[in-house]
Structures are given as C-alpha cells and as structure tokens.
Amino acid sequence: MADGTRGTWACPKDGTAMERKGRRGPWRCPECRGVFFDTAAMRGGRKGPPVLTSVFTSVFWSVLATVVVRKMRARKDRRPQE
Q: What DSSP designation does 10 have?
C-alpha cells in the first residue's frame, strides 16, 4: 500500500489507484469495490501514545464509582427501619 502522505493509494489486491471517500479514513477501490482505512490518518497524526488521557480517564471513572457507591449507601441508611 502506498504512503498516505502522497495523496493516492494503490489497491493491495490489484494495484489500481483508489479513490478517497473521506477526509481522514476510507479509500475505495473502483475495480474490486474494496474499502480500506488509513489508520494513521484516523488517529489525527498524534505523536506517540496518549498516556495522560488514559490516566485521567481511569481516575475519573474511579472517583465517579466511589461517589455513586457512597450515595447508594447513604440512601440505604436513610430508609425507615421496619
């Protein structure tokens, strides 16, 4: 497959120049009707893995789960005793 920066890709099945169907991702071969995705373009050209994003997401869900559990326990304690 050709480099995505040149503007065209060759179909991996038959070598035909493919048509771009979107700004970032899909390419379509007019001959075999196959659809191929440029995964590097879909990532938006980021340099390296988004390390801090995963840490912030993990902390966010952990805090959210803690808050929900505490609210549920507080609600259970406020119910009248039978």
A: B
- Phi and psi at 28, nearest 5°, equal -125, 130
The Cα 19–Cα 48 span in angstroms is 29
* pTM, full prediction: 0.37
User: Please, which pLDDT band fits residue 82 given cuts at 50, 70 and 90?
Assistant: low
CB 17 within 8 A of CB 27: no
Tokens of 53: 């994003």
pLDDT digits (tens, 9 = 90+) for 36-77: 777 666 666 556 666 788 889 999 999 999 999 999 998 877
Q: Are strands 19-20 and 26-28 parallel, antiparallel or unpaired?
A: antiparallel
First to last CA, the chain: 71
Q: Is 24 exposed, middle or buried (0-12, 13-18, 19+ CB in 10 A)?
A: middle
